[in-house]
Amino acid sequence: MTIYIINPNSSRLVTDGIDRALEPLRAASPVPIAAIQLDEGPKGIETQAHVDGVVSPLLARAASLEAEASAFVTACFSDPGLAALREQSRHPVLGIAESAILTAMTLGQRFGILSILSRSVPRHLRMLGAMGVMDRLAADLPLELGVAELADGDRTLARLREVGFHLRDRHGAEVVILGCAGMASHRADLSAALGCPVVEPCQAAAAMAIGRVALARAHASTKGPTIATSH
Predict the structure, then answer these.
(1) Tens digit of pLDDT for each residue in 12-56?
(2) CATH class of 98-200
(3) Residue 218: enclosing H or E segment and its boundaries?
């Protein structure tokens, strides 16, 4: 049985970054954790059309893995297909955005989000509104870097630092969320620079998936004895 972290885009660079971010969690997991991708997905998920377009192949890929899965994580900060996959699967299903937001709220009162592009922000605000947590948001600020541009590590970290300081100093963010799976490799450096917690969403979701698997095993091991009844 395996926790599957599904990157809905087709970028091997992003998937490999997710895989490296998950490595420290593998020792704590009762089952293997595998980072996979949708080869039929776009190179980066940057628009609502991209989000909508990957739902069907995401559901199909998860269905093909259902028998061997312990949990699924959708590794895109727009959480594409989250409700549909929860309806389809009998296993725990986590979205990285939802998980990162819930995690951030345990680390500070107000959180900020570092988005890739301005057009990403409205999608995030709709999600936050649906979750009922808008009053905990300090701000959602874009780097104005597309997914492909995140491959330039030095440029990306420089923008993360610049915009991250704005979130902290101008908007009062006590916790910062990386708003794209493609930023995974920068969590530690950014946290050190800002001096505050930085939540990497794939790690947050994987940690929740590990917890759900462990909780299910605990429940199974503490079931009471079956009581026979006569008819």
Answers:
(1) 989 999 999 999 999 999 999 999 999 999 888 888 999 999 999
(2) alpha beta
(3) helix 201-221
Residue with tokens 């970290």: 157
201-221 and 12-26 are packed helices; what angle lies between their axes, rounded to 10 degrees?
50
Alpha helices in the chain (DSSP H): 12-26, 48-53, 55-65, 82-88, 96-104, 121-131, 153-169, 187-194, 201-221
Whether 2-96+202-221 shares its CATH topology with 98-200 is answered: yes
CATH of domain 2-96+202-221: 3.40.50.12500
Angle in degrees, CA 40, 205, 200, rounded to 5: 90
Domain regions of the chain by residue span: 2-96+202-221, 98-200
Q: What confidence score (pLDDT) does residue 49 get? A: 94
pLDDT tens-digit series, residues 62-115: 999 999 999 999 999 999 999 999 999 999 999 999 999 999 999 999 999 999
